Amino acid sequence: MKSQVKENIKKAEGLLLGLSKTQFDMIYPFSNENLADCLANFNLQDQECLTVLGSGDQVLEMAYRGGKTLTTFDINPLTEYYFYLKKAALMADISYYEYLEFFCYEDCPDYNVQNPDAFNEKLFNKLVPYLKDDSYTFWTSLFNNFSPLEIRESKKLFTEDELSYQTLRQSITYLTEENYQKFKEKAPDININFI
């Protein structure tokens, strides 16, 4: 295992155990910007794009809109693993509602309270074959040492800055049921350069 992955696993474990905490180490579960409106007037088809990685939704939005070369940056190295988890979910044989069930914690369509099925192992096992190299090592290590809800609980590894399900559907283009189905076909071809 590469030393950088080991360091990042220790960082994530420290957050989950409450041993360390800075806002720059935590992962945003979804974008908190209205990406659909922000990018509506840009033609990204076959363009080179540069964006913060954050929740991964910025780059996924650009890929949905046809961005060709996707270069991303972030002060938090954990965001890269989260992006590859979202990409794996798009590639896996899971439905739109399973995707939301897995990633939404604060507001999920079937729950009025925090989602007890967030990051559930049944769905995680469907994603595992699509996780590659370091992201596979990172996520399987966390799932081997923590329960799914310990990993996904807000205020530890993830920020509590999660928009409601209805708002997400309006602000992130691929998070409507119709667009999600179309986007799944593009998912295997989404590649990023992470700085």
Task: Write structural notes for this entry.
The chain has 195 residues and is mainly alpha-helical. Helix content is 46%, strand content 7%. It has a three-stranded parallel β-sheet with strand order 1-2-3, with helices on one face. The longest helix has 14 residues, at 3-16. The two termini are 20 Å apart. The mean pLDDT is 91.
Note the run of SSEs as H and E: HHEHEHHHHHHHE
Average pLDDT confidence is 91
Summarize the main sheet. 3 strands, parallel
Q: Please report which band the strand proportion falls in: under 5%, 5-15%, 15-25%, 25-35%, 35-45% or over 45%.
A: 5-15%
The helix content is: 40-55%
Computed Rg? 16 Å
**Count of DSSP strands:** 3
Number of helices: 10
Provide the low-confidence segments as ranges.
none
Distance between the termini: 20 Å
What coarse outline follows from CA principal-axis ratios? Answer: globular
Largest sheet, order of strands side by side? 1-2-3
Structural class: mainly alpha
Q: What's the short story on this structure?
A:
With 195 residues, the protein is mainly alpha-helical. It is 46% helix and 7% strand.
List keywords for this structure.
10 helices; single chain; mainly alpha; three-stranded parallel β-sheet
How are the elements arranged and paired?
Blueprint: H1 3-16, H2 35-38, E1 48-52, H3 57-64, E2 69-73, H4 78-91, H5 96-103, H6 121-127, H7 133-145, H8 148-152, H9 165-171, H10 177-186, E3 192-194
Parallel strand pairs: 1-2, 2-3
Helix pairs in contact: 1-7, 4-7
